[in-house]
Design goal:
Length: 339
């Protein structure tokens, strides 16, 4: 099995465009490229990771001849991605959303073909616990008499198949970015990685983990990391949804008391254990910096992208745009992964 699922089934995600933004580059004082993940079938990067988990399950030889039903817990984007991926691959998907989920997103999930949308719990963690410990468990008991049916839990961010799928974003990036000019004083064989920095929003950390896995695959094909600058990842959150920054401050994996940010799709009370590990001890050639902005910063990023590029995104994306364009970085080339 390759680093993503078998190609025998059609991938439920697409290769998205990478565009250079003159307006954002001028504001930041460096070249900024935008990876248009909003063009994914689900409207977000979640199509990659969630799609890869579902594709991997369907490609598993042990599931041959079985009917798979997928179950997702999500405040929105992950659930929508799960429903669309399952539908496009000929399977069914049930989604449990917290009571705080927006009506518009619930309608989208239903319209995409969800078998059922269940509202439960004040937060994603409560919705997720109900799905795993009660709903799926009851379904498993009912399915014991039917060996040809299997119920599969699809977490929104904490699964290796999800990280592998998210890492395909880096596979595309290295093909799409323009090659770097040689550096004065370096030998002609010097081949630096095509980006100095990657800016990404962090909720539970699935995208961040995927980007790091992707860099681990590709960095060895460039100049040895001992001879070039580290690729810097800016892991961006909003205050009130800053579970990564909170765990870093505490020195261990710790949940925040509550999500109070308006960027609700960043609203994981706790990041994945692997996310904290990746930030505290990144692989060779990678440096990770945690940045926390405000909801106002995120809103300004949304407005900036709408005004300058006619692109409409949510707050979870706007915060990364604002960080990338508002002087938090002073590098020569920046790559932003956005929803």
């Amino acid at each position: 099995m390759d680093h993503v699922a078998s190609e025998q089934l059609k991938k439920p995600w697409i290769e998205t465009p990478l565009i250079e933004s003159a307006a954002l580059s001028k504001a930041a004082g460096c070249r900024i490229f935008l990876k248009l993940e909003s063009l994914q079938p689900s409207g977000s990067f979640k199509s990659r990771g969630i799609g890869n988990l579902i594709l991997t399950s369907l490609s598993d030889l042990s599931n041959n001849g079985k009917t798979l039903h997928f179950f997702s817990s999500s405040a929105g984007n992950a659930g929508l991605a799960a429903v669309i991926a399952a539908r496009d691959l000929g399977s069914s998907c049930t989604v449990v959303v917290p009571l705080s989920a927006k009506t518009m997103m619930i309608k989208k999930i239903r319209a995409a073909g969800a078998s059922n949308v269940i509202r439960h719990g004040a937060s994603w963690f409560e919705a997720d616990a109900y799905m795993r410990e009660t709903f799926i468990e009851n379904r498993n008991q009912d399915s014991k008499s039917d060996p040809l049916t299997r119920n599969i839990y699809v977490p929104p961010f904490d699964h290796h198949d999800i990280w592998q799928g998210a890492g395909t974003l880096v596979d595309e990036m290295v093909k799409q970015l323009p090659p770097r000019d040689n550096v004065d004083g370096k030998p002609d064989t010097y081949r630096p990685f095509p980006a100095d920095a990657i800016v990404c929003s962090v909720g539970g950390g699935g995208l961040l983990n995927g980007i790091i896995e992707g860099l681990e695959r590709h960095l060895p094909t460039y100049q040895p990391t001992t001879l070039q600058k580290k690729v810097r990842i800016l892991a961006v959150e909003t205050a009130g949804a800053d579970s990564l920054a909170h765990s870093l401050r505490m020195g261990s994996l710790q949940p925040v008391a509550a999500v109070t940010s308006q960027a609700i799709t960043l609203g994981a009370l706790c990041v994945a254990q692997q996310t904290l590990k990746n930030v505290q001890s990144p692989p060779p050639g990678v440096e990770v910096t945690s940045i926390v902005g405000t909801d106002a910063d995120a809103a300004m990023g949304v407005v900036r992208l709408c005004d300058e590029l006619r692109l409409e995104v949510e707050l979870a994306c706007g915060i990364s745009v604002q960080v990338g364009a508002h002087g938090h970085i002073t590098l020569s080339l920046v790559y932003i992964a956005w929803q």
